[in-house]
């Protein structure tokens, strides 16, 4: 090996070995990085251009769609008014209706109606004139065209002008086309005889109800080259990009560079629009030429086209062509064209600079490498000679190297090696003693830590309760983005199922968190009663109906009885009482294999009773209500009774069932204590269990029914509304992005702020209509930010809604006192967000129809099919119970049991389960031949 190294050294000096590889690596790396940088820049530009085209096309389609929808909305309103007699051109009646519509839809050029006797009335603001004018033409004595000015409250003044031309609306193209086609339609673009601008008319024929007689035609004019040109010119399309709208003949409807005059090449009744290939703008003209070459007929374009082409100078251009249709006959093409040079100019300049810098760095590195190699080679040769001497046995060899710190250290290491070996034996004993002392100190620290742990254990309940914000905030993102993903109609079925599993798992996790927080809040003294009046008899009936099939599936008789003097309406915490009763009855059914489970409710204690009656005197309007649950189940061992109500503790039977968390009875007892009562248990193994408890309640009058409206999925905003600005203030980015992604697609303008101070700055400049305000944030929290906003006159007009993960009721009072207009907890359902926005801003939403379509109207399979006769009654009863309780996990498990033998049935039932249509599953089970499932009423569902 030494011979090889010696020969290699003679062939290639050490200095060359140090310099050449370094230079080669530097040159190769620089070239590779430059090439990859350029390629990545090109890909980034292509991607950016595609995203920009898609975004601009979507904005244009939305603007055009909104723009062309309003005329037919106006026509529909005028159709109703004409039929009802509120609008009558022959008597010049209805001017105020036109005036109100022109105020609501300012983008429409002229609103008018003509009737069969030749009368005409219209309203609009005409170029060259100030104010709004009414145009009236009557069949007698002459069909002259008269102008009337409209004042600021919609009243008509005296005539201010006339047109010496007999005007008969029945001869006009818009009237004749509507009469001929007998349905709403668009006219061709024509030249307005008064303003001399290209006009597009939306006309609707009006027929008398019953007889079908034509009453007249209502119409509305648009000037697309005016409104759409203005909108397109406001869009920023790179630096030199253009947007324009074409007819299927290749004529320019609107352009970001043209006004209404230069779009005309023939001004007559049948005007001819400017072909896009003849545009004065080179990019518009080149794009139109390319489209005509690429497609023989522009009507062949029936979907979005992504195109690339080059101009004569060789510059590459990006173009996107998107069809636009509506139900009334519009058929346009939206074109977005962007030069690649808009993005690549700076990138090319950076690449040139990079090449020069790389070359300079290579030259500089070569010079530095030569000097460095000389400096390193000399001390290495000295160190090599010393190492050879030590290898030959001269351990006392002294090595002296100066100039390079690392080599000096290496030389000193050779010299100190022997000395350190001798010293190591001396220090070993000392290190053992030090380690022993450290262990003693560790034991003392362990005792101290044990004491701290005991203190921490005493404070665990308060700590867990205060951790609500940290637990529920990420869960809000999980549930929120799951709901947001499920809104997508393009989500594949398998992915929808996966997202549904995530959503249901999040709901289950939220339930577990709420159970733990219930315990913690109770122990921390932060749980309060939510007193309300309710129907106690109905609550008991609901519980019996809810649990009936679960008991019947196990051949267990469930009975619910009450004393004759039991009041019907009481006031206490209904939800806590319901939770206690469901837990006790469910436990009784679960641990009873045969026999019965009974619930008896009375104003007198059961006899015999294990309860200790309240010693204090109750108020006159308050009385104790006693509940006794008895079962003939497995029973509870005597040694387990003392630990029965401890959190996370289960009996032997509960452990064997492998169900539950051991929190149910603990929470039940805490709730009973909170309602002023107590609970006691008596049990015998193999015989059964009796659980009795009482609560203190107040008598109440009849309670109103709580009706929950059916929820439908929001798909957008109703037309004709202003653009609402919404500000989201939250220090967690994932919470802000959730609201942005939920609201932006619907048409809201949404901005974000990461703390209260930033939120105040945006509010002051942007003036949003509504603010979603998180209350716990750095820099400035939501309390101070809300107080500062609401302290101003402008802030009183801004709705501020608190969005917090806190579950403490007392914090709600603090938040509202800070000035917030409303309060919403995380995690939230998307419908809660829409309801709050509608409540505080008056926003009108558009809703989707039922997603399942016609399939929801029919059962998933033929009820009389022989294949359904073999479904076990126990399975049908279990499915009915799970659907009644909206237990999606149990429903899915039961569907899986029949998926092999009834694949089609399982698929349909799964679809209903994923859409949370448990009511449909209940109806299907009830309709099965021989089914004994009780039909629940609307209140149960």
Automatic annotation (TrEMBL):
Keywords: ATP-binding, Cell membrane, Coiled coil, Kinase, Membrane, Nucleotide-binding, Phosphoprotein, Transferase, Transmembrane, Transmembrane helix, Two-component regulatory system. It holds the Pfam family HATPase_c. The chain crosses the membrane at residues 12-38, 356-377. It is found in: Cell membrane. Its main location: membrane. Residues 466-699 form the Histidine kinase domain. It catalyses: ATP + protein L-histidine = ADP + protein N-phospho-L-histidine. One of its GO terms (molecular function) is ATP binding. GO terms for cellular component: plasma membrane. It comes from the Bacteria. Residues 374-426 form the HAMP domain. This is Circadian input-output histidine kinase CikA.
């Amino acid at each position: 090996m030494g011979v090889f190294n010696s020969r290699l050294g003679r062939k290639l000096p050490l200095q060359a070995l140090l310099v050449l590889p370094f230079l080669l690596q530097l040159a190769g790396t620089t070239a590779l990085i430059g090439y990859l940088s350029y390629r990545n820049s090109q890909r980034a530009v292509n991607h950016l251009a595609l995203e920009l085209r898609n975004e601009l096309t979507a904005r244009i389609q939305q603007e055009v769609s909104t723009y062309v929808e309003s005329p037919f909305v106006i026509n529909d309103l005028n159709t109703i008014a004409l039929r009802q007699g509120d609008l009558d051109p022959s008597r010049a009646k209805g001017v105020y209706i036109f005036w109100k519509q022109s105020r609501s839809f300012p983008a429409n050029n002229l609103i008018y109606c003509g009737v069969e006797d030749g009368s005409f009335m219209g309203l609009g603001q005409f170029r060259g004139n100030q104010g709004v004018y009414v145009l009236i033409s009557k069949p007698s004595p002459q069909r002259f065209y008269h102008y009337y000015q409209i004042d600021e409250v919609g009243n008509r003044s005296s005539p201010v002008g006339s047109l010496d031309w007999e005007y008969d609306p029945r001869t006009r193209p818009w009237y004749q086309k509507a009469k001929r086609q007998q349905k709403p339609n668009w006219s061709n673009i024509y030249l307005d005889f008064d303003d001399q601008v290209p006009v597009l008319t939306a006309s609707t024929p009006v027929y008398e109800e019953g007889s079908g007689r034509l009453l007249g035609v209502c119409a509305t004019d648009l000037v697309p080259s005016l409104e759409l040109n203005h909108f397109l010119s406001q869009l920023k399309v790179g630096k030199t990009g253009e947007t324009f709208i074409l007819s299927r003949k290749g004529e320019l409807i609107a352009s970001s560079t043209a006004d209404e005059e230069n779009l005309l090449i023939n001004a007559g009744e049948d005007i001819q629009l400017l072909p896009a290939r003849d545009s004065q703008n080179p990019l518009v003209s080149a794009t139109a030429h390319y489209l005509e070459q690429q497609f023989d007929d522009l009507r062949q374009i029936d979907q979005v086209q992504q195109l690339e082409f080059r101009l004569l100078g060789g510059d590459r251009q990006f173009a996107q062509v998107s069809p636009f249709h509506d139900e009334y006959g519009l058929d346009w093409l939206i074109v977005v064209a962007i030069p690649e040079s808009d993005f690549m100019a700076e990138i090319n300049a950076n690449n040139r600079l990079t090449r020069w810098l790389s070359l300079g760095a290579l030259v500089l590195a070569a010079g530095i490498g030569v000097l460095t190699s000389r400096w390193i080679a000399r001390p290495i040769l000295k160190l090599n000679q010393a190492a050879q001497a030590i290898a030959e046995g001269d351990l006392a060899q002294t090595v002296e190297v100066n100039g390079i710190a690392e080599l000096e250290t290496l030389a000193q290491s050779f010299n100190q090696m022997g000395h350190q070996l001798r010293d190591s034996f001396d220090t070993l004993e000392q290190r053992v003693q030090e380690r022993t002392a450290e262990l003693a100190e560790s034991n003392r620290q362990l005792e101290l830590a044990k004491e701290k742990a005991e203190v921490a254990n005493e404070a665990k309940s308060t700590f867990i309760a205060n951790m609500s914000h940290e637990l529920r905030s990420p869960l809000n993102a999980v549930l929120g983005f799951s709901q947001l993903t499920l809104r997508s109609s393009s989500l594949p079925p398998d992915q929808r199922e996966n997202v549904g599993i995530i959503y249901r798992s999040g709901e289950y996790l939220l339930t577990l968190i709420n159970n733990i927080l219930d315990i913690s809040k109770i122990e921390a003294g932060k749980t309060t009663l939510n007193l309300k009046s309710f129907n106690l008899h109905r609550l008991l009936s609901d519980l019996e109906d809810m649990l009936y099939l679960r008991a019947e599936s196990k051949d267990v008789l469930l009975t619910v009885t009450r004393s004759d003097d039991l009041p019907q309406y009481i006031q206490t915490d209904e939800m806590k009482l319901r939770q206690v009763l469901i837990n006790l009855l469910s436990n009784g059914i679960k641990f009873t294999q045969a026999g019965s489970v009974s619930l008896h409710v009375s104003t007198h204690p059961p006899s015999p009773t294990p309860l200790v009656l309240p010693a204090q005197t109750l108020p006159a309007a308050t009385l104790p209500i006693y509940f006794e649950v008895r079962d003939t189940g497995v029973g509870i061992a005597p040694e387990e009774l003392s630990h029965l109500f401890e959190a996370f503790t289960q009996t032997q039977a509960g452990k064997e069932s492998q169900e539950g968390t051991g929190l149910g009875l603990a929470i039940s007892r805490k709730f009973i204590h909170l309602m002023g009562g107590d609970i006691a248990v008596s049990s015998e193994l193999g015989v059964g269990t009796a659980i009795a408890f009482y609560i203190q309640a107040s008598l109440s009058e009849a309670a109103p029914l709580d009706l929950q409206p059916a929820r439908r999925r929001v798909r957008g905003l109703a037309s004709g509304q202003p653009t609402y600005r919404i500000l989201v203030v939250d220090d967690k980015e994932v919470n802000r992005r959730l609201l942005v992604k939920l609201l932006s697609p619907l048409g809201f303008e949404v901005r974000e702020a990461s703390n209260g101070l930033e939120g105040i700055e945006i509010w002051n400049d942007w003036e949003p209509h509504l603010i979603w305000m998180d209350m716990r944030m750095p820099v400035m929290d939501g309390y101070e930010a809300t107080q500062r906003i609401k302290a101003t006159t402008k802030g009183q007009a801004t709705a501020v809604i608190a969005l917090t993960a806190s579950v403490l009721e007392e914090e709600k009072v603090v938040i509202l006192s800070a000035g917030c207009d409303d309060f919403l907890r995380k995690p939230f359902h998307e419908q809660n967000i829409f309801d709050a926005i509608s409540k505080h801003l008056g926003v009108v939403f558009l809703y989707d129809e039922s997603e399942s379509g016609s399939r929801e109207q029919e059962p998933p399979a033929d009820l009389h099919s022989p294949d359904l006769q073999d479904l076990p009654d126990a399975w049908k009863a279990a499915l009915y119970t799970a659907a009644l309780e909206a237990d999606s996990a149990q429903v899915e498990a039961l569907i899986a049991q029949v998926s092999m033998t009834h694949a089609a049935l399982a698929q349909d039932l799964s679809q209903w389960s994923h859409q949370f249509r448990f009511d449909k599953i209940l109806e299907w089970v009830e309709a099965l031949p021989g089914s004994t499932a009780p039909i629940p009423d609307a209140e149960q569902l």
